[in-house]
Design a protein that fits this description.
This protein is mostly helical and 158 residues long. It has one domain (2-155). It has 5 helices and no strands. It has helices at residues 2-32, 34-37, 56-74, 79-103, 116-129.
Length: 158
């Protein structure tokens, strides 16, 4: 029974991370932390080298995960926090594979998928990157995609 609870905590954390990442992207990355995220919206960043300042968010999001592991494994009463850390780590892996590998092709590990959901993810992210400034962007999430991106481009502005 306790194992089922820990699986549930992990899955709930993964789901919550999508909304946490959405809020962080909208209000922090396109807000006070724009100076770290701005280079990700430049279309010519191939000339700047492999890493972007935006990659700093990997570390920023890793901190709560690492703290969850450390606290959860150090104090038995907080063991559940270990599974919060696992959930954050799993979401980070999903984010890396979809955002950096699949969408931005920073690693050529697999080809583009061809189904409605994967096309909607690409459309939503492309629409987000069409705005190169701090303000005016939309579609801040990764896995949850607005229904309009399942249609054709003319449907996006409805």
């Amino acid at each position: 029974m306790i194992a089922l609870l820990y699986v549930g905590i992990t899955l709930l954390t993964i789901a919550a991370m999508e909304f946490t990442a959405w809020a962080a992207h909208k209000y922090l990355m396109h807000g006070a932390l724009w100076f770290l995220h701005e280079d990700h919206h430049k279309h010519d960043h191939e000339d700047d080298g492999f890493f972007e300042k935006n990659d700093s968010f990997f570390i920023i999001f890793a901190v709560p995960s690492a703290l969850s592991y450390m606290i959860g494994l150090s104090w038995p009463g907080y063991m559940w926090l270990t599974f919060v850390g696992i959930g954050i780590s799993i979401y980070g892996l999903i984010y890396f594979l979809i955002h950096d590998v699949y969408i931005h092709r920073r690693f050529k590990w697999f080809k583009h998928l061809d189904n409605k959901y994967s096309r909607a993810i690409l459309r939503a992210h492309g629409h987000h990157h069409a705005v190169t400034e701090k303000d005016g962007a939309e579609s801040f999430g990764l896995l949850v995609v607005d229904n309009k991106y399942y249609g054709k481009r003319k449907d996006w502005d409805k």
